[in-house]
Write a structure and sequence with these properties.
homodimer; 16 strands; about 450 residues; 3 domains; BirA Bifunctional Protein, domain 2; Rossmann fold; ligase (chains A, B); 5-stranded mixed sheet; alpha+beta; 8-stranded mixed sheet
């Protein structure tokens, strides 16, 4: 039998795991620094928790786990005879794999509300599962990296999450554009354009401006019910670009003004509290390009205030050719938990697309040189008699915390050096009978081929 | 709707995640130090990979994932009508959740053999799933922590894995007994006792010596076909205890002598290469108690050479009352991958019972004091006007790598200190209008209640 893995899933080689871990560890470091705390939830959730939370399409993409034992025992005989999968499902499966980290988080907050201190700030870096058709860059099993704070509507969190996004990409050595908008501004626009009842339609059309240009957007808007007046208002709005020039256009909309004020406060907070060294960044208080983007809508209906979307900055030198959509995003929501019966739990959060960030760093060759290497020394012995000496040396090195390994047989140097290369060992300690006697070891640097003689203490 | 999670699964609070992470990180640190490399495999495997690998009982305990879409479409109508779950299964489910880390590892080695350098040393710290009946300390979703090396039969690996087990428990501050035996010794005993054909029966009986005493073991052995001569040989053997006194009893068994020689070499290697400071440990070259245990058999048929089992040392001061079975174990196997068509792949590995180690450390109150705390400073503001000042301070602290958080509203000090306590913050920075002006902050140490005045640079 030739083994395989399910389509849409992946194995990772050690060098890949290490580079993935590098990304996760940078994200985790900033999450922790900003006071977000780790929680863990099970991979399997009750289907009652998951079903109906992601729309009809989402329900179809949930992986369902079969009940154990004689699972057909309680199934409806008529539904079985009719091969009615939907109807049979409820009687043969009561668990599913988590689809995202948000719904399990909501469930968690409700179940553990008495053990949590609010505002509650949590992060989670865990895999999720979706039965999407697998394609390049899209998997059925992939990681999400989320940080959220719930139980407060303070704008300090919008400011700090912007700083957090900024800090992560700065540390990863990736120049990013952090785009920020506020749903209330879009609601204001819909109001003054007379499209308050189909705001969703409006934002979907506007969202495509970058890709298809104004003429097509206008066509689309018209087909969605915008009249000539609405088109004019919207065009003016999209041309405005900066917060200052948008503000007067929203003077007649209460919600629109609120959105402007909130966003202005967030930008001010970031600028005033900037921890950047002088001369760094774009003058907005962050390392990366931070922009107000009135076209930014993000699909999720769910958001009610700030929304972020982060992309690779293709204006930055060396990054011109990167074709990649959003690499992080997030937003504020008025209500996390009422689906589980707990009211008044507003929150705000961001999420990193670690899999896409991996692809970008790979394409830019921007992983640190040591991100895929772990071993410090490989010890090789030229003859059998020195192997035990080699084992003593490797034991003592490890006890000192050095990452070291011993090639377990005496062999041809060439073969052992090849193994060192495959193991990504930067240095090789070569032991022959003379070295074993004198304690003066030949140490070869794999990258340069340089060789020096060192005593154990110097390793 | 009142939310819940599937029985046998768990949510973890931040303090629990941190303490679990502490254990994982100690184990991982030693895995890396000893040259083991991380790999990752999918949570979902093809059922064809998993089925038949864990015996009939294991097959029943596999969690199976329903095919997506109209899963009943291809199901056999007669089997459905008869509600024959076993027969229907193959047509409605082709994936399952991994049951352990060994079978996926074997599959991985076969699939990626051309990308791996042998001896290949890998570790994995990942959850597995078993549909066991949940009970205290037994979960349906739990972590395994495995390190294995495949592609070599060198005894250096037996020696280093013993050092690795020793190093992990030493660093965790847990005194352990590491018991070591060799299947070949048991095979030799079976040979000389005339029980070569029912060696498994013999080892199962012997394995219980500790719990039920010799008389009951003898009864059991008799019922399994041992005659009086066999009983005498076995009794003599069990009384021998040390390797030296067992050796002469096995003089007539080739395989038995091989087992003795192997074990002797492993003990010698460990002792000779001991990196321990003088006076530490029990004189065997390791920190913990290292013992030859001829009764140690371990259930798995699978092992062919060395076998380990590690338990809490209840002779150690303070650990007398710990009732816990094996907290780590492992062994050598002649063949990992032939189930997937790849021959000659011997290996040896160990596995840590992280969930049990957690319970033991909890019971001994042996987690480091800072294992569940992460935040260094919580900043609280006494009035609204100083909040922005507080935000500036927290931004600058974080930029310096300090783990800091800001309570987002001005409030009563008592309430904010309670929040600091719930967040496990060791220090609280208190800002009133005077502090904001002078830059001299009141810093309260939560543990002692002490208060001092510090400038930002001193935080």
């Amino acid at each position: 039998m030739k083994p395989s893995i399910p389509k849409g899933t992946r194995d990772f080689l050690p060098s890949e795991v290490r580079r993935r871990d590098y990304i996760f560890s940078v994200i985790k470091k900033h999450f922790r620094r900003f006071g977000y705390q780790p929680i863990e939830t099970p991979v399997m959730e009750n289907l009652a928790t998951l079903t109906g939370k992601y729309g009809e399409e989402g329900d179809k993409l949930l992986f369902k786990v079969l009940n154990n034992g004689n699972f057909l025992g309680k199934a409806d005989a008529d539904a079985l005879a009719a091969k009615d999968s939907d109807k049979v499902l409820a009687s043969i499966s009561k668990r599913g794999l988590r689809y995202d980290l948000t719904v399990p988080f909501a469930r968690y907050v409700v179940m553990h509300q008495n053990d949590l201190a609010f505002p509650f700030k949590r992060y989670a870096i865990m895999p999720v599962w979706r039965a999407d058709r697998p394609q390049k860059g899209r998997y059925q099993e992939f990681y999400q990296c989320d940080a959220d704070v719930v139980g407060s509507d303070s704008l300090f969190y919008e400011a700090e999450l912007t700083q957090l996004l900024d800090g992560v990409f700065h540390e990863l050595g990736l120049k990013a554009v952090i785009r920020l908008n506020n749903r209330k501004i879009l609601a204001g626009l819909a109001e003054i354009a007379g499209m308050a009842d189909n705001m969703m339609d409006m934002t979907i059309a506007i969202d495509k401006l970058d890709k298809i240009g104004w003429d097509k957007v206008a066509e689309d808007l018209t087909s969605r019910g915008a009249n000539a007046g609405a088109l004019q208002v919207i065009k003016q709005f999209l041309d405005a670009k900066s917060l200052d020039s948008v503000a007067p256009l929203l003077a007649d909309s209460e919600i629109g003004k609120e959105g402007i004020a909130e966003l202005q406060e967030v930008f001010d907070l970031i600028k005033q509290s900037s921890p950047l060294p002088r001369g760094e960044g774009f003058g907005e208080g962050v390392y990366n390009r931070l922009e107000f983007d009135v076209t930014l809508a993000r699909g999720l209906n769910y958001y009610t205030g700030a929304i972020w979307e982060v992309a690779v900055d293709t204006d930055a030198p060396g990054q011109e050719n990167i074709k990649m959509g959003s690499i992080a995003g997030g937003g504020r929501y008025a209500d996390l938990t009422s689906i589980f019966g707990m009211k008044d739990m507003p929150g705000v959060g961001v999420s990193f697309g670690a899999e896409r960030i991996y692809d970008v760093l790979e394409e830019l060759d921007a992983f640190p040189a040591d991100a895929s290497e772990d071993l410090q020394y490989l010890i090789v012995c030229l003859d059998k008699e020195t192997l035990n000496h080699g084992f003593g040396l490797v034991s003592r090195l490890r006890a000192r915390g050095v990452h070291a390994d011993l090639y377990p047989k005496a062999g041809k140097l060439q073969k052992m050096l090849k193994y060192a290369d495959q193991r990504n060992a930067p240095k090789v300690v070569i032991i022959g009978s003379r070295e074993a006697e004198s304690g003066e070891y030949s140490v070869k640097t794999m990258g340069t081929g340089e060789q020096e003689t060192l005593r154990e203490e110097k390793l």
